[in-house]
């Protein structure tokens, strides 16, 4: 095979692999695909059954209550109110969702990741210390202190957090590039899995005493 043709074939294969490996939501092929629980006379798209587009109504695209603070009485002193396809059925196939995050003073949204979405966060009240860590092997920590009106982006799949460093409550709004971004809170996943991960695995992975690992597992 000639060098030029070989190069074009390689580029084409890379493009194909890239498209197949995409983790973002697929583009919709119709105006609406309102999710419904009843499969009768419906089409299954993106993990949801679609309502007949002729039967969609305003309520399918509506959510009320994001102005209300969430309950922050918990160990991390924060609350995430999600507005995803489970809350607004009309989000099905549209590849977007949002959340309100409330923080008590020194509360945090602990290190976590969204396996299916990039997040863009806007601070409405207070001061937040935020950051994310890049993938192996570099593991660069990129952080910033945000004040009211500031915006920060957390790339898809990377571990990130938000921490209220102020003496007053803080509020932020996040938009995410998936109708169902998913969330994996690192500590809960590692130390609170069901059934538990064998402590020997975590002892070596985190270079900790086995008693420390057992204690952490008891906390989650």
From TrEMBL:
In its keyword annotation, does this UniProt entry include Metal-binding?
yes
Q: Mind listing the UniProt keywords for this protein, alphabetically? A: Apoplast, Disulfide bond, Glycoprotein, Manganese, Metal-binding, Secreted, Signal
Please give the CDD domains that the UniProt record associates with this protein.
cupin_OxOx
- What residues does oxalate bind to? 109, 114, 119
- Give the matching PROSITE patterns: GERMIN
Q: Which GO terms describe its molecular function?
A: manganese ion binding
Cupin type-1 domain boundaries? 64-214
Q: Which SUPFAM superfamilies match?
A: RmlC-like cupins (SSF51182)
Q: Where in the cell is it found?
A: Secreted, Extracellular space, Apoplast
This protein's source sits in the domain of life called Eukaryota
Question: What positions does the entry give for Mn(2+) binding?
Answer: 112, 114, 119, 160
**Which InterPro entries does the UniProt record give?**
Cupin_1, Germin, Germin_Mn-BS, RmlC-like_jellyroll, RmlC_Cupin_sf
Give the record's GO CC terms.
Answer: apoplast
SMART domains listed in its UniProt record: Cupin_1
Cystine links in this protein are: 33-50
Signal sequence range: 1-23
Say which family it is in.
Belongs to the germin family.
Protein name according to UniProt: Germin-like protein
What species is given as this protein's source? Vitis rotundifolia
Q: What is the lineage of its organism?
A: Eukaryota, Viridiplantae, Streptophyta, Embryophyta, Tracheophyta
